[in-house]
Design goal:
The chain has about 400 residues and is α/β, with parallel strands linked by helices. It is about 40% helix and about 15% strand. The protein folds into 2 domains: about 140 residues, Aspartate Aminotransferase, domain 1; about 230 residues, Type I PLP-dependent aspartate aminotransferase-like (Major domain) (Aspartate Aminotransferase, domain 2, 3-Layer(aba) Sandwich), CATH 3.40.640.
């Protein structure tokens, strides 16, 4: 066989999100795109802010010598300074440019962190439901994923987390606002988690890192707020990107920041910087670094997603689904009326509705629906959802 056995197995288990997206492409070709209700992919469709277009037009005309050259592997210092200033306000603690690196999206940032922290066999806790790629990122660097369930409303289950920690635990990844549930973890629960990690680290004579993946931080609804991770726990790292709040997923621009008082900071930052280089990223895209430095005080029009969330919740409620309304991001994660979520997704496909089974996120018995689609796609799907829920009653 030409490919590795590991990659063959990974391909078989690869993301349900992509599987459903690819299935959607086939269905659109067969039935016409207007007749397929595709809620499979979290591909933000709100337009970038107007200021983005102005800034990038100006910057692409810059013909200064070296404008497209290599820079420090961690990114332009002045770009990091601009982001650190904004992060200081968000995190309610002073962040400096030396605490930060620019990365190739949040995915690149998470891989940089895993490369820097993990020895073979180290364990990383993932909170189900979780973004499926986390498993691969941990494995990329010799780690082992340990799945821990959240509670029935997708909040932190501290008792379950405590029970999962061992002497091999190196980190926990949290994602708030969460993909796929839209849940935001409360400030009190994050502080309690920080205390738990501090206590467990002391007992095992180790450092357990809290890694917060925050690309949806600015996509929030109904006056909810996203608490500061840095205020909750010293040994924490924030990873984020501009894929969602500026609608730039294809540009692969993100960043990471370590807590200013994190243990052994100098060695950690050096390791992160080296990892950014030797993983093949070298540095984040130069043009996009310069662009986002000018956009720290803007984001997409969040009212677009807020309107769709309200519309979709009404559609699902009317169809008879049980779900926790999302506080942020652009997903809803309803329970399926039958236990087999994969089979339920197949039933939805009969009505040209594409959803992702919760099995793909470590939480069977649910489906993920992304509402980064036009309003009329949501509205016109209503009858199809009703039909499938009614059909499921007789299975």
């Amino acid at each position: 066989m030409s490919i590795s056995e590991k990659m063959r197995l990974f391909a078989e288990k690869s993301s349900w999100i992509r599987k459903m997206f690819e299935e959607g492409a086939k269905m659109k070709a067969q039935y016409g795109a207007e007749n397929v209700f595709d809620f499979s992919l979290g591909n933000p469709d709100a337009p970038p802010p107007d200021r983005y277009n102005m800034v990038i037009r100006e910057l692409v005309q810059d013909e200064s010598p070296g404008v497209h050259s290599y820079m420090p592997n961690g990114g332009y210092p002045w770009v990091r300074e601009a982001i650190a200033t904004r992060m200081s306000a968000e995190q309610k603690i002073t962040v400096n440019q030396g605490d930060m690196l620019m990365t190739c999206g949040a995915a690149g940032g998470l891989n940089v962190v895993m490369k820097s922290l993990l020895d073979p066999g180290d364990e990383v806790l993932l909170l189900a439901p979780y973004f499926v790629e986390y498993n691969f990122y941990v494995d990329n660097h010799g780690g082992v994923s340990r799945i821990v369930a959240t509670d029935s409303s997708f909040n932190l289950d501290l008792a379950a987390i405590e029970a999962a920690i061992t002497e091999k635990t190196k980190a926990i990844i949290i994602n708030s606002p969460n993909n796929p549930t839209g849940q935001i973890y409360s400030e009190d629960s994050l502080h309690a988690l920080g205390e738990l990690l501090e206590k467990a680290g002391s007992e095992h004579n180790s450092t357990i890192y809290m890694i917060s993946d925050e690309p949806y931080r600015k996509i929030i609804f109904d006056d909810h707020t996203v608490p500061s991770i840095f205020r909750a726990y010293k040994n924490s790292i924030v990873v984020s990107s501009y894929s969602k709040d500026l609608s730039l997923p294809g540009e692969r621009i993100g960043y990471l920041a370590v807590h200013p008082q994190i243990e052994d900071k100098a060695n950690l930052v050096n390791a992160l910087t080296l990892a950014n280089r030797i993983l093949g990223f070298v540095n984040a895209p130069a043009l996009m670094q310069r662009v986002v430095a000018e956009l720290q005080d803007v984001s997409v029009d969040n009212s677009i997603y807020a309107k769709r969330k309200k519309l979709f919740c009404a559609v699902l409620e009317d169809a008879g689904f049980t779900f926790t309304p999302p506080k942020g991001a652009f997903y809803i994660f309803p329970e399926t009326p039958i236990a087999d979520d994969v089979k339920f997704c197949a039933l939805l496909q009969e009505e040209n509705i594409l959803a992702v089974p919760g099995t793909g996120f470590g939480s069977p018995g649910h489906i993920r629906l992304a509402f980064c689609v036009p309003d009329d796609v949501i509205s016109r799907s209503a009858e199809g959802f009703k039909k499938v829920v009614n059909k499921a009653k007789y299975l």
